[in-house]
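Narrative summary of target 7.
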Amino acid sequence: MQAVRVIAVRHGETAWNADGRIQGQLDIPLNDAGRWQAQRLGQAVAEEVFDAVHTSDLLRAHQTAQAVAGVAGLPLQGHAGLRERHLGDFQGKTLPEIQALWPDQYRAWRERVPGFAPSGGGESLVQFRERVLATVHRLAQAQGQGQIAMVAHGGVMDILYRAATGQDLHTARTWTLANAAINRLMWTPESLTLIGWADTQHLNRAAMDEGFS
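Modeled conformation, tokenized:
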């Protein structure tokens, strides 16, 4: 039976994460904290055996994935299908700005209406889920066995968690989507299974005292 272990990671922190500004598919690099997180991530998975390292082609994910590819001795494979949800006109704005400019759209977004797509070319949650899961299925099926890394975005991690636990798109999130956390899943042609979620031991305070303040 085909079975692939997946280590899925959200990118490290960016300045826009810290400022509460919506990134979507805008190409924002890691900040100093994010680069440190990526370094710690690479150290945390140095003993893992990977057969491939996949990443969103957006810079913040690509920069984070470089740390994994470096310790694995593998080339990075970038995929537009692993990008964050396109949030249209919301991109580049803060939550208060979105609420002030588009109150009805803001409400639909925050209420997680599955078919709602922000103006300006945004994706609905339904479209986003279909894109992400189709990409993950294609990459895992092509691998067939072994273990792969996938570095992407908070929204992508959310879709993977929901798929692995049977959570509906409109269900309020009660799980964390921490930057540079290690999430473990098992893919088979029939399903995704959750193995472990939000491991941030490599980012704890003791580790931070070693190299970032």
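The chain is about 40% helix and 20% strand.
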